[in-house]
């Protein structure tokens, strides 16, 4: 018998990968800034509702947060470490007349997801909408180039976080609540340089459909949005190879990338009563790319 201790189990929370240190990126540093501005006056579709939006500091998350605020929601913004962007987004929500809080941390940790929900319910007294939008991507030309560190990290951020947030939120969601997940066009058409990212998006779509069936009897709707190439800080900060940035989005039928404010209305539709007869569905703001449902 040996007194050698067995190897310790790996930590369930993966540290940030060192391959693209600029991710997820700061919107305030971009010269060509994404367009997050809502395109129309609010109509009160979320008055009295409270929403958590992960990845809410910039890009699609910022556009969704400001639009939800314009429609009357209390907003909890969850972000990793982009404090300046988050402070700006919180102020933009407040300018719309909404109450807003910003919470920084890594959603790959289950304890942080629980803390997010706890802070939100403490601040606003309820929780009605969960938008699982946080994500990361790391381009690689060959499958052998994807390190174990990167693979674990991408799955942790993109899909584990959705489980953790949903588990934490579930006791506070009652009949009429909505969950909206962010998947991607890459789930449907694939991406030769984003093998791990695309795989997580496939998992998110399956999670969305399965969770919708799981919660339908409780009156909680679960849907998803699958954006195409959208101009956000993720792209120039390492999410796309630098040589592809000038042509980003040109391979869509519309011949251009989308803007965050062209995606946010899809999240609003799925979060409000306009979509009361929809669950387990995916909307596709992708520049005209025709994909299977």
Automatic annotation (TrEMBL):
This protein's UniProt keywords: Oxidoreductase
Region annotation Disordered: where it falls in the sequence: 1-45
Domain of life, per lineage: Bacteria
Annotated Basic and acidic residues bias: 26-38
Family to which this protein belongs: Belongs to the short-chain dehydrogenases/reductases (SDR) family.
PANTHER family documented for this protein: NADPH-DEPENDENT ALDEHYDE REDUCTASE 1, CHLOROPLASTIC, NADPH-DEPENDENT ALDEHYDE REDUCTASE-LIKE PROTEIN, CHLOROPLASTIC-RELATED
Protein name, per record: NAD(P)-dependent oxidoreductase
